[in-house]
Amino acid sequence: MENNTNNILIDIQDLKKSFGDQKVLDGITLQLHENENLVVLGKSGSGKSVLIKCIVSLLKHDEGSITVGEQELTDINEEGLIEVRKKIGFLFQSAALYDSMTVRENLSFALSRLNKKFSEEEINNKIVEALENVGLPDSIDKMPSELSGGMKKRIGLARTLVVNPKIILYDEPTTGLDPVTSDEISHLINDTQEKFKNSSIIITHDINCVKTVADRIAMIKEGKVYKVGSLEEFVNDDDAYIKSFFK
Ligand SMILES: Nc1ncnc2c1ncn2[C@@H]1O[C@H](COP(=O)(O)OP(=O)(O)OP(=O)(O)O)[C@@H](O)[C@H]1O
Predict the structure, then answer these.
(1) Using a 6 Å cutoff on CB, does residue 43 contact ligand 1?
(2) How far away, in angstroms, is 46 Cα from ligand 1 center?
(3) Domain ABC transporter: where (predicted)?
(4) pTM for the complete prediction?
(5) Which of 4, 62, 71, 175 is the most buried (most CB within 10 A)?
(6) Does ligand 1 come within 6 angstroms of the Cβ of 24?
(7) What is the chain's pLDDT, residue by residue, as a tens digit (247 residues)?
C-alpha cells in the first residue's frame, strides 16, 4: 500500500467513448502510477467498466489516448496488443472461470496463453504457488461448481497472478460476497500488491473495500474525472456528491 515512485504505468489522456449518441466517457485524463492501488469510484452506469475495457482494448475508444508502458493503444496491431495484455491481468466481476475445467486446468490454460515454453514441473510449481498465495492450495483438483463465491474470486485472482502481470484490473472484486469474505478479498488485494509490487485499478462500490485498498481514488461523474485524491482527501471533502459515497 505504498506509492514509492511516481512512474506512470498507464497514461490516459482525454479519453472519449460513446455508444450511438450516448456519451459515456467524455474526456477522461488519469494515470496509474507504479506500485499503487487506484480505486475508480462512480455511480452505476458512469462508465467505470467501459474505462477498464478500453484499457485492455476489449472496447475501442473514439478519441484521446491510452498508453500502457511505452505502447499507445489507438492504432495498435494484433502483436502489440498481445504484448500489452501480457502486462495486464483482468479480474472480471464474475471471476469467469471455465466451468468444464478443474482449477489446475484453468490456471494452466492462462499460462499456455503466454506463448512461453514451460516444463510440466514449472507449470505445476507456478500453479501451486499461485494457489498458495490466495490461501487455497487444496482446491487444485476441484471443479468451479464445487467452490463458493468467495473461493471463485480467489481462484480468479490466482489465475491472474499465475502469469505475473505488472498491472491488475479488478472489476468489483467484492460484489456478491458477505462482509467477512469481502474483507478477506480486500486484504488479499493488498497482500498481492505488497508481495508482487504490481499496480492495480480497482472498480468498486464497496466503501469498506475502498478504505482498505485505496492509495488514491478517482471519482468519475458525467464522463469526466470529478476528483482525484487520497482516501483522506475524499473522506474530508465537503462536496455533497462526494459525501454521498462516503456516508
Ligand atoms: N457494449 C456496449 N454497448 C452499448 N452500451 C454500452 C456497452 N457497454 C456499456 N454500455 C453503456 O455504457 C454505460 C456505462 O456502463 P458501465 O458498465 O461502464 O458502467 P459502470 O460504471 O461500470 O456501472 P456499474 O457500477 O453498474 O457496473 C451504460 O449506460 C451502459 O449501458
Answers:
(1) no
(2) 7
(3) 10-247
(4) 0.89
(5) 175
(6) yes
(7) 444 446 999 999 999 999 999 999 999 999 999 999 999 999 999 999 999 999 988 899 999 999 998 888 988 888 888 888 888 988 877 667 888 999 999 999 888 877 778 888 989 999 999 999 888 999 999 999 999 888 888 898 889 888 888 999 999 888 888 888 889 889 989 988 988 899 999 999 899 999 999 999 999 999 999 999 999 999 999 999 999 998 7
> Mapping DSSP to helix (H, G, I), strand (E, B) and coil, where does residue 165 land?
coil
CB of 46 closer than 6 angstroms to any ligand 1 atom:
yes
Measure 81 CA to ligand 1 centroid, in angstroms. Answer: 23
Show the cell assigned to 180: 467477512
In degrees and rounded to multiples of 5, residue 21 shows phi and psi of -100, 15
Ligand 1 probe mutation, 49, 210, 226, most atoms within 8 A of CB = 49
Rounded to two decimals, the ipTM of the complex is: 0.96
Rounded to 5 degrees, what angle do the CA atoms 51, 55, 200 make?
A: 90
